[in-house]
Amino acid sequence: MFGPFKPTAPLSSGLLWKIPWRLSSMQKARQRKRLRAVDTVVAVVDTALKKQGSSTKEVERWKAGMPREEEMRPKDKYTIFDRKEKRYRKGIHKLPKWTRVSQRINPPGF
Predict the structure, then answer these.
(1) What is the distance between the alpha carbons of residues 58 and 40, in angstroms, rounded to a whole number?
(2) DSSP code of 20?
(3) Which residue in 14, 65, 67, 73 is deepest, having the highest Cβ count within 10 Å?
(4) Helices 25-52 + 57-65 axis angle, to 10
């Protein structure tokens, strides 16, 4: 179309919100900071419960099943398992709500 109502370049060429294929160094730093913050909260809750002489199944299950940030490999910090991907991994930033969902465990061997 010509004239004042012609389509703009982003609208005619595809997605307006493009996601880069790799995380930037600042996104990786924020991801590590989020993982450490969750580890700190779990540790604080656990010590507070131990002072009271009690514990909860959820905290114990988290500590037994989830690795801490320093125990995780970089591959697990920044990527997640996806059976539809070519090499079964995709960047964690492609997961919807990736800043609010904990993705620490992946299937063995991937």
Answers:
(1) 15
(2) P
(3) 67
(4) 140
pLDDT of residue 10: 57
Residue 9 has pLDDT above 90, yes or no: no
E-state strands within 1-110: 79-81, 89-91
Q: Is 41 helix (H, G, I), strand (E, B) or coil?
A: helix
| Collapsed DSSP state (helix, strand, coil) of residue 12 | helix
**Which is higher by pLDDT, 60 or 99?**
60
Q: How far apart are CA 102 and CA 65, in angstroms?
A: 12
**pLDDT for 16:** 65
Beta strand 89-91 with 79-81: parallel, antiparallel or unpaired?
antiparallel
Q: Say if CB 5 and CB 73 are below 8 A apart.
A: no
Of residues 19 and 91, the one with the higher pLDDT is: 91
Q: Is 80 helix (H, G, I), strand (E, B) or coil?
A: strand
